Structure formats: C-alpha cells, structure tokens
Amino acid sequence: NDNLYCRNMAKDFSYNVWIDDRWLPCEYKELTKMLYVPLKGLEAGSHNLKIKVADQYLNTGSWEGSFNVK
C-alpha cells in the first residue's frame, strides 16, 4: 500500500518531494489529506520518488520508492 495514514496527525508539518533527485513543488490538500505529486512531463521509464515529512515537534519520516511511466 502506498498510502500512509497517521493517528492524531500534527496540525503543522512540512514536506519535500524529489523525483530522480530533483525537488518538486507539490500540493497538500487538507480536505482529502492527500499530497499531490505532479507527474506531467516525466519521460517514459523508471523513476525514483522520495518524500520527507517533519512536524512542529521535529518528528520526521520518509518514504522512498520507484515507479514507471509508460
């Protein structure tokens, strides 16, 4: 499963997203609790995705994975 769920989520947090070691601006939608990563314009082939998150208490987390664009 590629969806991450947290109980008692912190109200303030920051996130950074990289695809192929290139930082991307992304949008977090509070209503749906989803982070939207733009994939438009990526070349066909395999890509690496990394997401790092930190909350106001300095708790941090990260996730890394790969995906293919056809």
β content, as a range? over 45%
> How many β-strand stretches?
6
Overall SS class: mainly beta
Largest sheet strand order: 2-1-5-6
The biggest sheet amounts to: 4 strands, antiparallel
Unreliable runs, pLDDT <50, ≥5 residues? none
Rg, Cα atoms, Å: 13 Å
Terminal Cα span: 21 Å
User: Helices and strands, in N-to-C order?
Assistant: EEEEEE
Helical fraction equals under 10%
**Looking at the chains present, what oligomeric state does this protein adopt?**
single chain
Average pLDDT, rounded to a whole number, is: 87
Alpha plus pi helix count: 0
Shape label: globular
What does this structure look like?
This protein is mainly β. It is built from no helices and six strands. The protein has a four-stranded antiparallel sheet, with no helix packed on it. A two-stranded antiparallel sheet has the order 3-4. It is globular and about 40 Å long. The two termini are 21 Å apart. The model has no long low-confidence stretch (mean pLDDT 87).
Ordered list of secondary-structure elements with their pairings:
Blueprint lengths: L12 E7 L2 E3 L2 E3 L4 E3 L8 E11 L4 E10 L1
Antiparallel strand pairs: 1-2, 1-5, 3-4, 5-6
Summarize the structure.
The strands form 2 sheets. This protein has a 4-stranded antiparallel sheet, with no helix packed on it.
Question: Main attributes?
Answer:
two-stranded antiparallel sheet, mainly beta, globular, 4-stranded antiparallel beta sheet, 70 residues, 6 strands
